């Protein structure tokens, strides 16, 4: 452990006298020189600051903590009095008590926290904040003699240089315990510790006992369940040194950074996940590079009793129909410990209303399809679903049942219920559950669950007295800001707050689609304009740059480009608000066999192809800054009521920055549209879009995915090769979607196939510009028969297909 030389306290005492600035009182607290409310200490080289802070402005709770001194976002790494906040920092202080301990004295001069070590001589110690972020209680005469250190008493954060382990002499472990809520440092249910039973694995536990993740044992180079630790080169982990030490007195794990300019931390998040984060100054935010469990909903009881977890959603916790957040104010701060409670008590076991007839008052069941079933099911003998239901009804503590061949019953609170309707299911297993509700829950009509949730929140919050009143006031202030911000306009764009968009999308309840860059949700503006709200994931850009890029995108307007209406940029959240397209994306109309909208006619297809080409031509040549789309595929072509195509998601490449190409090249479902230069790692030009357009044009002609499985055999077939073959044989009509039964304009089909083939040439200089494509499709220009692109030959061979797309560039 790096500790300052012994002369330091003296030196800083001197500086203190000379400067006389109370907020720059050096790095030391000593007897007779306490740290009081408004002051703070800064470590020797300015890396960390120690002082009193208030994590949540709407409450009057203050804590002594350590945070980074040189980054722009207040990020707490340690809190002393996690469970004993003070309310009046001005009259509180951190001092050295007469028994030599470091103590926090509140306004009544009583100790709310102490380092609590014994055998220290009075007036012989000092407290020093070190550049590692470690606060030590050391001998005043020799600060190398450490009596106590915050690195032995972590909060939720484990800093480089700290040891997370177990003492073999005392059996004591150092553990990380998450904050209870985003503004509440009190210890939550989630903790990380070295297996107290003596193995070398780290465990994530809920309430100290329920294990929901394990690192696996140390294998000498990595933990068994964390193989990425051994990866080299491109992995961010290569900047770190790791080591597991199994010594005589203690076992522990340490990590450090080889490059001192790297600012990094490891923490157990409020969500119950462990997260490894690095500060990226250019983006002014913490970037996550490793996390476990990967899926939020795999954290035990993450949404509390009767809460429902939804993967890849924000917020990830909600209450099922008939329930509402038990403690709304905490719920809003991401503290879901208390879970959900019923709006109306059950008749059985509750308080039945004597005036109603028994049958009207009897509890009923509400089905929730597509769920991962809660833990702790009990099986019961039942011959049918109805039997299963009756068995549950017959026991007052039974709260839900599920019948899939066998009968499963749940008693008491439902734990680990997950909504998998939007995908993100665990291992693809998805069932239905019937949740017991009071009869009164069924009296109204239809779908009022979400409204009830919101109203329930407000009502319950109102009924919790004084403490919550301040929280409510804060919420009201936020609300006022919201209405103002809705009217605030940047250029032609609306700037939304995150809360606005929660409101607009009914808390992101209706998902329209998802992709590697984020999910899209349906919403309605106050004037009832329908919108599509895209939640971007992994945007590293800072606020300013994001706004600049978004305004640029906002100025791009064309009948074949989707219109950006507004955006939200708040803290780390980045969302875009687009016009809503009633007919959804092109892939559904082309490929879904059971689609209710019928088969797209040739005429419509041709108009769609032409419209997309015009939209791209505009992006490439006609707007102020050329925009390369980079991700042209049927999923990104949306259709309005009249089947007019609109290109979506343009400009994302710039918003996403460096990450874009990495995500793109590793994303399933995109690879088949990527031009060879993506794989070669050479510069990307507008011709990359031309290639993707060509691939998509083949699909528009054929009405099926380029890479498909013929119904008869198992071999993969690659349609563009087939189409080119037919084209050269003068039979391009054979390439057309069979469902059109020959009703396609032969000249147009041939033109489209030729254009597509020219577009997918390996040599980008041979590919036409989008302007040229438009002219050809409009019939203004004739085209020659194209050469067969080499990549089509390669792609036609399924064994090479894999080779061709493996070994993608890592950035
Ligand atoms: C809380 O108040 C402080 C000081 O007024 C301010 O710097 C900080 O940004 C506020 N935090 C939040 C979350 O509003
Ligand atoms: C100090 O330790 C004693 C027992 O060892 C414990 O009862 C007390 O709560 C501790 N005080 C503080 C402030 O941590
Ligand atoms: C410790 O120091 C304070 C002030 O410097 C003094 O008042 C007190 O008597 C000292 N206590 C002991 C036990 O020396
Ligand atoms: C301070 O303490 C350290 C560790 O106990 C010791 O090695 C060192 O010699 C001491 N320095 C002085 C000046 O006493
Ligand atoms: C880890 O090692 C311990 C013995 O040290 C063993 O009992 C345990 O089963 C191992 N865990 C796993 C997951 O292999
Ligand atoms: C947590 O564990 C303790 C015992 O270790 C138990 O008494 C308590 O009820 C548990 N809490 C919950 C919410 O289950
Ligand atoms: C209801 O079910 C629970 C759990 O199986 C059981 O302990 C309890 O005795 C049952 N109550 C009645 C009235 O059958």
TrEMBL record:
Residue ranges crossing the lipid bilayer per the database entry: 453-478
Cellular compartment(s): Membrane
Membrane topology: Single-pass type I membrane protein
Signal peptide coordinates: 1-25
Keyword entries, A-Z: ATP-binding, Disulfide bond, EGF-like domain, Glycoprotein, Kinase, Membrane, Nucleotide-binding, Receptor, Serine/threonine-protein kinase, Signal, Transferase, Transmembrane, Transmembrane helix
EC number: 2.7.11.1
Chemical reaction(s) catalysed: L-seryl-[protein] + ATP = O-phospho-L-seryl-[protein] + ADP + H(+); L-threonyl-[protein] + ATP = O-phospho-L-threonyl-[protein] + ADP + H(+)
Gene Ontology BP terms: recognition of pollen; response to other organism
Any GO MF annotation of the entry: protein serine/threonine kinase activity
Segments forming domain Protein kinase: 506-781
Primary location recorded for the protein, binned into one broad class: membrane
Family indicated by similarity: Belongs to the protein kinase superfamily. Ser/Thr protein kinase family.
Protein name: Receptor-like serine/threonine-protein kinase
Protein's organism: Panicum virgatum (Blackwell switchgrass)
């Amino acid at each position: 452990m790096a500790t300052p030389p012994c002369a330091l306290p003296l030196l800083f005492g001197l500086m203190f006298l000379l400067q006389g600035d109370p907020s720059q009182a050096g790095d030391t607290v000593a007897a007779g020189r306490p740290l009081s409310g408004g002051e703070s200490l800064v470590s020797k080289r300015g890396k960390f600051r120690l002082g009193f802070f208030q994590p949540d402005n709407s409450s009057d709770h203050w804590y002594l903590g350590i945070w980074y001194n040189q980054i722009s976002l207040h990020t707490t790494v340690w809190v002393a009095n996690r469970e004993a906040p003070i309310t009046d920092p001005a009259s509180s202080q951190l001092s050295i008590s007469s028994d030599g301990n470091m103590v926090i004295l509140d306004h009544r001069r009583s100790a709310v926290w102490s380092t609590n070590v014994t055998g220290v001589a009075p007036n012989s110690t000092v407290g020093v904040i070190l550049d590692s972020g470690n606060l030590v209680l050391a001998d005043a005469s020799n600060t190398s003699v450490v009596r106590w250190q915050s690195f032995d008493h972590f909060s939720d954060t484990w800093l480089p240089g700290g040891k997370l382990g177990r003492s073999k002499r005392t059996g004591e472990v150092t553990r990380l315990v998450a904050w209870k809520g985003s503004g509440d440092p009190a210890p939550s249910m989630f903790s990380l510790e070295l297996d107290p039973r003596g193995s070398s694995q780290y465990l994530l536990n809920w309430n100290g006992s329920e294990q929901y993740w394990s690192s696996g044992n140390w294998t000498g180079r990595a933990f068994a369940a964390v193989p990425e630790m051994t990866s080299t080169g491109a992995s961010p982990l290569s900047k770190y040194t790791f080591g597991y030490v199994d010594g005589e007195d203690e076992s522990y794990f340490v990590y450090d950074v080889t490059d001192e300019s790297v600012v990094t931390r490891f923490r157990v998040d409020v969500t119950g996940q462990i997260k490894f984060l690095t500060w990226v100054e250019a983006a002014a935010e913490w970037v996550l590079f490793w996390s476990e469990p990967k899926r939020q909903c795999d954290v035990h009881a993450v949404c509390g009793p009767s809460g429902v977890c939804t993967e890849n959603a924000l917020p990830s916790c909600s209450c099922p129909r008939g329930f509402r957040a038990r403690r709304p104010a905490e719920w809003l701060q991401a503290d879901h410990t208390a879970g959900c409670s019923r709006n109306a008590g059950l008749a059985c076991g509750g308080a039945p209303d004597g005036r109603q007839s028994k049958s009207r008052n009897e509890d009923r069941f509400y089905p929730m399809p597509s769920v991962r079933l809660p833990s702790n099911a009990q099986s019961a003998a039942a011959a049918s679903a109805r039997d299963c239901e009756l068995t549950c009804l017959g026991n007052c503590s039974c709260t839900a049942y599920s019948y899939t061949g066998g009968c499963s019953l749940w008693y008491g609170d439902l734990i680990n219920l997950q909504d998998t309707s939007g995908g993100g299911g665990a291992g693809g297993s998805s069932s239905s559950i019937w949740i017991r509700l009071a009869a009164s829950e069924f009296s109204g009509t239809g779908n009022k669950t979400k409204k009830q949730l919101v109203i329930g929140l407000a009502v319950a919050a109102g009924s919790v007295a004084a403490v919550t009143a301040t929280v409510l006031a804060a919420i009201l202030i936020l609300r006022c800001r919201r209405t103002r911000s809705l009217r605030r306009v940047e250029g032609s764009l609306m700037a939304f707050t995150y809360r606005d968009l929660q409101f607009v999308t009914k808390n992101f309840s209706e998902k329209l689609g998802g992709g590697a860059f984020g999910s899209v949700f349906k919403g309605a503006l106050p004037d009832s304009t329908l919108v599509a709200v895209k939640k971007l994931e992994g945007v590293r850009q800072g606020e300013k740059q994001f706004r600049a890029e978004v305004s640029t995108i906002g100025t791009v307007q064309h009948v074949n480009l989707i219109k950006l209406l507004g955006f939200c940029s708040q803290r780390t959240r980045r969302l875009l608000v687009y016009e809503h397209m009633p007919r959804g994306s092109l892939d559904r109309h082309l490929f879904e066999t059971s689609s209710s909208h019928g088969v797209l006619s040739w005429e419509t297809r041709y108009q769609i192809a032409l419209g997309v080409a015009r939209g791209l031509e505009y992006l490439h040549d006609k707007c102020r800054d050329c925009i390369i789309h980079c991700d042209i595929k049927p999923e990104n072509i949306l259709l309005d009521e009249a089947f007019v195509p609109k290109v979506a998601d343009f400009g994302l490449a710039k918003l996403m920055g460096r990450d874009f190409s990495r995500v793109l090249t590793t994303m399933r479902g995109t690879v088949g549209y990527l031009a060879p230069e993506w794989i070669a790692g050479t510069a990307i030009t507008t011709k990359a879009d031309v290639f993707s357009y060509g691939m998509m044009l083949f699909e528009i002609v054929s009405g099926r995915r380029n890479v498909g499985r013929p119904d008869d055999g198992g071999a993969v077939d690659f349609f563009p090769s087939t189409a080119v073959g037919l084209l050269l044989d003068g039979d391009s009509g054979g390439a057309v979607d069979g469902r059109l039964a020959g009703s396609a304009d032969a000249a147009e089909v041939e033109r489209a196939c030729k254009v597509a083939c020219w577009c997918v040439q390996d040599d980008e200089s041979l590919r036409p510009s989008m302007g040229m494509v438009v002219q050809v499709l409009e019939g203004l220009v004739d085209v020659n028969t194209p050469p067969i692109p080499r990549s089509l030959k390669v792609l036609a061979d399924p064994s090479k297909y894999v080779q061709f797309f493996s070994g993608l560039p890592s950035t």
